[in-house]
Amino acid sequence: LAFWYPLLLSFSGATCSPRAFTCNNKHCILQSWRCDGHDDCGDGSDEINCPTRIPTTCSSDYFTCDNFRCVSKKWVCDGDNDCGDGSDEQNCSEYSGSKQQCLMRVVYSTITTCPGLCHDDEFQCQTDGFCIPEKWECDGHADCEDGSDEHNSCLPRTCSSSFFQCNNKICIPSSWVCDGENDCRDMSDEQNCPTPPFSCPSGQWLCPTDMVCIELHKLCDGQRDCPNGADESPLCNEDDCQLNNGGCSDGCIQGPFGAQCTCPPGFQLLNDSKTCEDINECLIPGFCSQLCYNERGSFRCYCSDGYFLEPDGRTCKVADQLAAVLLVTKRSQIVANHIYTNPPLIRPVISGSAIVTVDFDRVTSRMYYADASTKQIWSVFSTGLMVPESIAVDWVGRNLYWTDSVMENIEVSTLDGRFRKVLLTKNITSPRGLVLDPRNHTNVMFWSDWGKNPRIERAYMDGTARKAILTTKVYWPNGLALDYSTRRLYFADAYLKYIDYSVSVVWNETQVLHLPLSVWVETRYWTERGVFRAGKEDGSDFAVLAQELQYRPNDIHVYSPAKQESCNNTCMQFNGGCRINECLNPSVHKCAQICTDTLTGYYCSCNPGYRLMPDGKACEDINECESTPSVCSQLCDNTAGSYFCKCAPGYIREADGRTCRQNSGINPYLLYSNRYYIRNQTTDGSQMSIVLQGLSKVVALDFDHSEKRLYWLDVGVGKMERMSLDGTGREILANTNVVGAEGIAVDWVGRYVCEYVF
After folding, report:
1. Cα–Cα distance for residue pair 324/307, rounded to 1 Å
2. What is d(CA 202, CA 266) in angstroms, rounded to the nearest whole number?
3. Is residue 198 part of a domain?
4. 342 and 472, same domain (yes or no)
């Protein structure tokens, strides 16, 4: 059982675009609808003062309508009112049973721009009347489906000195050559490019001259693992790591060319080949299928509501797979495909004349779709049917958004068609895709415009804070899709023939792409005279779900309750959000620690000693002992939200809580040597005494406070010695191999003595 609620697409109360007709009741309609025998305005003003129609003689491949229009014979009895008076759909014998079951075998493209509605700076394709930028005419590439933009009058194309001419004669900026992107569309700008230097992943060693990687543990193991045996050499018998750990910040192993620095898991060597740096796994696209939090030497993946983390610790899986449905519009029908059923369960949901786009509201299980033939947006209530989401339903604020390429604007109304408003109309020429993120404290919309200055833009859902987010290397931006879990915006460019996000191309095709687009979990779905899918990160797992369809699909969406996250509608809960302090209601703000109210909402923050997590609500303790090693002068213990400094035996903590000073009952003093003797002296210089004399050449000394012992190096006699500070217990620790020593240090914790040899 289904109920249809028409929401008329004509607009009132604003200035109509130059390509539209302004009715007496201030509605805007297509200029071509004037004097077509139909009351499109609703007040009959578009049929007033019409010139007397002279019978028209149409060419042999066109059909003459009762209102003397000429339409392609392909359009006769195709289920669409192309004449405007219905005469092309009368006396049709190729319909069976219901008017919605068309058996016609003609294949034709989706509803396109009417003849005569292209801008002055656009070229109109001959067969379908489609408008493309004027500069694409005679650019060496057929942008019209019939190739009419590359006609016989086109002159040979040349490029200016600052441009590169592709093999297909397209001109692109020279700076785009060899940048890793297929700007020419035939890959000629990425041919004969310099090969990037070969490198091995972290934890492996590059065999010189062979471009072969081997594991580090195979170095100096007595086996020739590199083709030229370079992993083995006489230096393998040395121990270069013994001296200052080979200069390495972390691990050190002996390699065929000396000390080889290594890093623990989760770290990588910097360009100096000595220092280890944490690997931020979260910067690797697709490392976590949804949300990622980087940790020192590690990472943590987690999932959005409605998903659970798989045992691999990286992949999120939807909890209710049976609720996921793929919805495709194909001109006269909306078809549903339950994604996870095997074999696929495909069934028609809605029939119409020229269905071009669809969206779904999870709150009421109501579907919204636009029919270009009836010039209406319809609302259909379907009982017990889970169907897709996303042209422009705001399931939180209960509003409906849409773009209009003829009126050149973006509009919004409530879901029942009331309170209609034009949000954006300036500098919009050919708006195409539109997606929303109405979740709490996001409230943004994105749209594509493939007009004179093609771009992708964003704004708040009230039309404010408008900003172009992509203006370069985009020509014909079409379908948009939001991956809510990873906060990525995917888009399709029908001119460049790829699906992209941010700056990384993840799918590339050679066909002309209409490319309505949807993203679900790890997969992207799109249409082009068929329905296709591929991995959203790298284009893997490509599959054809449907092909050789009678009509080219116009729109595609995946619906699942997990996609339309349940959020609080503060407008309905708190009197439109006026003068509301969300921080007074913990169930609304859900801040773990601190909530700060603002004019337009609120934001969460954390107490001192904590950092805000990526979800913008939870707080995590900061380990000051690791993040700020000098926070304590000696020992440091991390505590929840803070830290505690401790001192070694014989020291007490100063009033600042961080600095330790000696607590021996005597004033601090200095120990120093002038080659022949060792002296001590108070720090204020008031007292001085000789501790030991008669030495040869003392170059370094240190003191062990726990045992009150003095250590020194006398390179004149080649000895390392120690004694108590009172002059007793003098003993020799080493009397060889200290001739070149220059430093000495006591490890008072591990009870070791280290010497530095130059």
Report:
1. 13
2. 9
3. no
4. yes
- The whole-angstrom separation of Cα 588 and Cα 662 is 53
Structural domain of 45 = 1-51
**Residue 428 and residue 332 share a domain:** yes
* 181 phi, psi to nearest 5 deg: -120, 145
Q: Which of 37-46, 88-97, 140-149, 684-693 has the lowest mean pLDDT?
A: 88-97
Read off the CATH number of the domain in which 598 is found. 2.10.25.10
Q: Are residues 530 and 456 in the same domain?
A: yes
pLDDT for 518-552, tens place per residue?
Answer: 665 556 555 655 666 666 565 566 666 655 554 55
pTM above threshold 0.90: no
Nearest of 53, 72, 52 to residue 62 by alpha carbon? 72
CATH code, domain with 477: 2.120.10.30
Which phi and psi (to 5°) does residue 338 adopt?
A: -75, 115
Exposure string (b/e) for 90-125, b if CB count within 10 Å is 16 or more?
eeeeeeeeeeeebebeeebebbbbbeebbbeebbbb
> Does residue 565 belong to any structural domain of this protein?
no
Same domain for 507 and 549: yes
Task: Please state the rounded mean pLDDT for residues 7-16.
Answer: 44
* DSSP collapsed to 3 states, 365-414: CEEEEEECCCCEEEEEEECCCCCCCCCCEECCCCEEEEEECCCCEEEEEE
With a CB cutoff of 8 Å and minimum separation 6, the contacts of 421 are: 411, 412, 413
Q: CB neighbours of 19 closer than 8 A, spacing ≥ 6?
A: 30, 31, 117, 119, 406, 408
Q: Are residues 385 and 502 in the same domain?
A: yes
* Structural domain contains residue 607: yes
Other CB atoms closer than 10 Å to residue 270's CB: what's the count? Answer: 13
* Cα angle: 621, vertex 624, 629; to 5 degrees: 155
Task: Please say if the pLDDT value at position 352 is more than 60.
Answer: yes
Domain count, the chain: 7
